[in-house]
Amino acid sequence: DFGRSSELAFVVEPSDDIAVQEQPLILYCQVEGIQPITITWRKNGVMIVDSENAFMLANGSLYVSRFQRVRGDGSSDEGEYDCMAQNHYGLVVSRKAKIQAATMSDFHIHPQNAVVEEGGVARFQCQIHGLPEPVILWHKNSMPVNTDNERYTLLPKGVLQITGLRAEDSGIFHCVATNIANVKFSREARLTVSGSHSTVYKDPMILVGPENLTLTVHQTAVLECIATGNPRPIVSWSRLDGRPIGVEGIQVLGTGNLMISDLTVQHSGIYVCAANKPGTRVRRTAQGSLVVQAPAEFVQHPQSISRPVGTTAIFTCVAQGEPPPQITWLRNGQILETSDHIKLKNNNSTLSIYGINQTDEAIYQCLAENSAGSTQASARLTVLWADGLPSPPQAVRAETVSATTIQVSWEKPLQNTKEIIGYVLHIRKAADPVEMEYQEAVSKSTFQQLVTDLEPSTSYSFYIKAYTSRGASKASEVTVVSTLGEVPAVPSLFIKVINSTAVQATWEPSIKLGQHEGFKLYYRKVHLAQYTGPVLLASNVTAYNITHLDASVVYEVKLLAYNQHGDGDSTVRFVSLRETVERTAVLNPPCDCMKDEQNNKTSTTGIIIGIHIGVTCIIFCILFLMFGYRGRLLMCKNVQEQLSTPQIPRSQRSAAGLILNGATRRDRDDRDLNGKQLDMNELERLFPASLSQEQQDKGMTSAHSPPAPPDDTQISTLPLDEFSIIEEQPDPLPKPPRGGSPPAPAPDHGPANEG
User: Fold this and answer.
1) Which spans does this entry mark as compositional bias, Basic and acidic residues (predicted)?
2) Parallel, antiparallel, or unpaired for β 97-101 and 38-43?
3) Which domains does the chain possess?
4) What is the rounded average pLDDT of the residues 719-734?
5) So what's the pLDDT on residue 620?
6) 283 versus 631: which is more confidently predicted?
7) Phi/psi of residue 498, each to 5°?
8) How far apart, in whole angstroms, are the C-alpha atoms of residue 521 and residue 459?
């Protein structure tokens, strides 16, 4: 019983049909409800009057005696038919039934002659339009093709495929199209099978791929795909969106045609046919789209309801289909017109009737329709009305109190006032839709109400209803009045000190200010009575600089917003430039960017100079150590010379000889064991150096070394620890012969160090 009004509803509705020329046609319509019920028929929205050709049967069905596509007067029995039923509760209309004449055109595609080598694939096609869709059969040599042969595949759209051709497949083919309107034959075509099966390699190739199809749910779709190649390619199917095709209702016809039975909306998509060379990735593809439509059907039906007068009635009707259906509402069989108290929302899925009265009582229908079909559901609105209810309240008046307040007053109804339990005041902005209305309840002894929290400069409408325990009265007359204009609210104000003679006043725009035309700014020294200003500023200005101020005094700054209704309240701020500047100077000392930059440069230069000085000091230290070391060696040289010329009497000079660093390593080792070592302090104390002594002792030479001038002496780099004084017994020097030849040199025990 979903979608039916118990007072009046359809049991059977007319359905789409294809009629045969000159044959009778019956359109069924059956209604149930409270009698008496009157049934009538319409074609294309026009009432059908009973005639000899078309009349209504006793059960409400329509009978057409001889259906004609075109009559002598140019009229046609084709069209959209609907059935209307009416009783004293209302009127309902059935779904529209589309009636078409059965037809068949001539063939517009005939089969063509073909010559194909043995083992190949042959394809014949013929096409013809008709209502209903013609059934196409194939004949070979005037005999029906044997459909038991698995190499022969007949597709519904008039295609014949023959795979693995043999010599016996040669012959003459034609097709036969049949429907309830006619039977027609195509032209003939000859198939010739030539030669023997070729073994030459051929890439896979798709001869015919799938075509785009638009079908309705529960129908069958056949997607054609025929491929050739050597070796014979393998045909596979997939969906372009990657979803699985599934297995239920899926069948492969012949060598690669895809058939999908009992279509659903989920089968819609793009299908890809692939011809693959066996054992390789070589493939060819073709694709076609399948669109599956679904006629409109209801997910939620409207329900019959009963509502008291003055309340709101809501009907909900939700339908689905592919493509999505359009929803239309009827009231007693007529298109429902929206108004202030009748609204449609949510793509017409929700019907709302505000402030219902007795004239709104009717049967409301929801029609859902798309290209695949239509459906309807109905529901009845019953308006509850009790006898003895109060008459509408009288003399409703509304007076403006302020920008946000209106006072509404009224007088009690003229009739049936004893059972009144209270009043309800209905309020809404005059420009708003009815559904934006709200209510305020008032006691039965009160005849006025102060309505607050309204918007300034806005029109409002008011009406009153009197309520009893059995229902509400009709609405009073509507009165409309506007609130007063309102001055702007107080703006926010902030003061920022720029320097010792200037401040900046800033404020934030806000919707809380209300309607305003601009701002007025005043300022003064606090000890003076007179303000400077007003400075008029536009409504979009949010800052103003006040300059040429005295830093030694305190200033008062005042800001207010204004509009056509007057000035709003002001915001006042006090500011002292001296204290603020001093505080800023302490907390945020001024930045001397040039000085900082110079300091940065000086610091960098100082670092570089410091590094250079440090490196220079290190170098000087190293040089100092080296030259100090060299000086000590020079001192040792002086000591050597002093040792060569000791300060002793001449008579004792030959008694002892001093040898300094002139012997071989073996001699030095002996001297280390036997000699007496002296440190430098003893040498300096015992043998002070003097130039005269050096000159007196020129004749002394070191052992094993030829005499050399003092100025040419080479300084040895031996450490001081190598120096020692060794006392030896003097050997008598050999006297040279009178011939003047020098004595033989002493044997060389090693390299001599010149010192």
Assistant:
1) 664-674
2) unpaired
3) 9-101 (2.60.40.10), 104-261+274-284 (2.60.40.10), 301-384 (2.60.40.10), 397-482 (2.60.40.10), 494-576 (2.60.40.10)
4) 43
5) 83
6) 283
7) -90, -50
8) 33
